[in-house]
Specification:
This protein has about 250 residues and is mostly helical. The chain has helices at about 15-30, 35-45, 50-70, 85-100, 110-130, 170-180, 185, 200-210, 215-220, 225-250.
């Protein structure tokens, strides 16, 4: 289900339905968090799939989960520098699952938080992390993994001792990608690029990141290639080509 249809500002219910939801809101105020979430889940289940009433109940359920501060945050301390990005993707996967599979929730088997936190920790966070981080070699501890940035390439640069003698390192790196002497950056394309976009290569991504574009903006320029796919590809290439980039900068 497209999460874009969920926000309640996009929904206009018939008068009776709106009155029913208002009555539900009033009855929920006196309940515990677990009971409120359960009642919202049940309310969503009582309406037909894709109906406005179900969308309204789902929107309120997801909002209640977000503000509860009770959603689990798995594997803290790992994915340094991009944990929040991974977690945000995991939440989107979770919320999409709730919207599509709300009928699979069984109030008799447990609380809503138990249901969603189990899926978030055991399924969706793992799926999101794999989008951002390639499979690690055996024996590598994820807690030691950090995001490599273009600034890291400045380490051990002989010009670092006197930056006034040369252009800023960011400008050097940008020129390095623009020139691409061996064409290796442009030849590195995202695999499975169904859109067939010729710009879906490491050279394009690196230049746009250096120019200050966000991943969301780059995604739009590349006809909607998913942000996790772009970021994961970029990180793999940056790691792979780090020695060559340092060679160009020396």
């Amino acid at each position: 289900m497209d999460l874009g249809v969920i926000p309640q500002t996009h929904l206009q219910l018939p008068t009776n339905s709106a009155q029913n939801m208002n009555g539900l809101d009033e009855s929920l105020n006196s309940l515990s968090l677990d009971e409120r979430l359960k009642q919202l889940a049940i309310a969503a289940q009582q309406h037909p799939p894709k109906s406005r009433e179900r969308q309204k109940a789902l929107a309120r359920l997801i909002t209640a989960l977000q503000v509860s501060r009770k959603l689990v945050r798995p594997r803290r301390g790992e994915f340094q520098g991009f944990y929040e990005e991974v977690y945000a993707v995991a939440l989107q996967l979770l919320f999409a699952h709730i919207c599509e599979k709300i009928d699979t929730y069984d109030p008799k088997r447990g609380e809503v938080l138990q249901w969603v936190n189990f899926r978030l920790e055991r399924e969706f966070f793992i799926k999101a992390s794999r989008e951002y981080l390639p499979t690690l070699p055996k024996g590598v501890d994820p807690k030691t993994c950090k995001r490599l940035t273009l600034d890291d390439l400045d380490k051990n640069n002989p010009h670092e001792v006197n930056p006034t003698l040369v252009p800023l390192i960011s400008q050097q790196v940008l020129e390095c990608f623009e020139e691409d002497p061996e064409g290796i950056f442009q030849r590195s394309h995202i695999q499975g690029n169904k859109q067939g976009n010729k710009d879906a290569n490491f050279k394009f991504l690196a230049i746009k990141r250096l120019e200050g574009y966000s991943w969301e903006e780059i995604s739009v320029k590349l006809d909607g290639i998913k942000v996790p796919t772009l970021s994961s590809f970029y990180q793999r290439c940056l790691t792979e080509f780090a020695p060559k980039i340092k060679e160009y900068l020396s």
